[in-house]
Amino acid sequence: MIGWNDVALLEPKYRREQIYRAWFDAGVKGIGDISTLPKDLREKFYALLWMPIKLEKLLDSKLDDTKRALLRLSDGEMVETVLMGRQSKKISPSAEKRYTICVSSQVGCPMKCVFCATGRAGFKRNLSMEEIVAQFRFWQEYLRENRKGEIGNVVFMGQGEPLLNYEAVKNAMNILIKFANLGHTKITLSTAGVVAGMEKMIDDPDFPPIRFALSLHSAIPDDRKKLIPSQPEDFFEFLIGWSKKYHIKFASRTHFVGLEYMFIGGINDSDRHLKALIKLASKLGRVRLNLIPYNSIDNDKSVKSADFEIIKSWQQTLMKSGFTTTVRLSQGSDIAAACGQLKNSYDNR
Ligand code: SF4
């Protein structure tokens, strides 16, 4: 299906930029409203959808300031995106509340991570750049209409593996940085570890200096392979070599290799796993660890999060070992909006 960006790409760069800029303007409801474009160009775009998504259902958490939106795409497929109010207290009462949005990059996902509802549901297709940025636009409009605040961070942690949809994700990030005034460190790309994509982002001069996070979940290769079956042979050797190149390319002090560790009770929370994590992390240069309680999926009670006390004690040990380590509290778990729970469900399961 042809989107307006397919047509915009045939135009000179300055025209394209006029269109991208207008996309974030609340007063512009379609290309016909972009007064800087000549009439013949507006007519050329007339029949093409400005917003390639439509709200199907909005779910509102009773536990915290989290919302999950199910969006219908123009070919009938569905995807979802999450809005999260910041966990930390506001700096001053008058400060505008900042939100983090979690965006999807694919309909479904082919990576089959065992702890993830999206992975269990299978893969349908990649999202286009417009469909990715439209998730940002959707929440921007929602916050404007409800006078709630602003989007402060975008995380590519929704449905899909972003590095398997490399060009669309890269273009979406560059457009958000340039036309939505989002600082590059306000965007985080999270990957399960796609070697080809990780190599490409190092060599690609157009890849923006966003924050990078790896879903690690175990520093013991055989155990990680059980959680992330797509893990290639010798992934950790690759990761150690890759992180050296990452630190050369992104040499600023604001850049680090983010390591995400989701705790699954009895699977990856032993002392042996902690020692392996410290050993691996110490070979990766500047790292930041993010410890995440497991969120149950599909009402499956056989798999549980590790005890929160264990997570806190890991945090203390990792901090004493010199690693910046945060614990991410689950948000929106009652509406299936927390990490690993996204699977286009209409209710809270
Ligand atoms: S965790 Fe991410 S990469 Fe793994 S199956 Fe889920 S969406 Fe895909």
Features:
TIM Barrel, 20% strand, two-stranded antiparallel ribbon, globular, ten-stranded mixed sheet, 2 domains
Write up what this structure looks like:
The chain is globular, with a radius of gyration of 20 Å. It has helices at residues 4-8, 13-23, 39-45, 117-121, 129-145, 166-179, 195-203, 221-227, 235-249, 271-281, 308-320; strands at residues 53-60, 66-73, 78-85, 98-102, 106-108, 123-126, 150-156, 187-191, 211-215, 257-263, 287-293, 324-327. The chain folds into 2 domains: 1-50, no CATH class; 52-335, TIM Barrel (Alpha-Beta Barrel), CATH 3.20.20.70. β10, α10 and β11 (287-293) form a beta-alpha-beta unit. The protein is built from 11 helices and 12 strands. α5 runs parallel beside α6 (166-179) and α7 (195-203) packs parallel to α9 (235-249). The longest helix is centred in the middle third of the chain and has 17 residues, at 129-145. Bound molecules: iron/sulfur cluster.
Q: Identify every distinct bound molecule in the structure, by name, code or SMILES.
A: iron/sulfur cluster
The value of Rg in angstroms is: 20 Å
Number of domain modules: 2
Note the main sheet.
10 strands, mixed
- CATH class categorisation of the largest domain: Alpha Beta
N-to-C order of helices and strands: HHHEEEEEHEHEHEHEHHEHEHE
Class by alpha and beta content:
alpha/beta
CATH fold-level assignment of the largest domain: TIM Barrel
Helix content: 25-40%
Just name the CATH architecture of the largest domain. Answer: Alpha-Beta Barrel
Query: In which order are the strands of the major sheet placed?
Result: 1-2-3-4-7-8-9-10-11-12
Report how far apart the termini are.
Answer: 32 Å
Estimate the strand proportion.
15-25%
Q: What's the shape?
A: globular
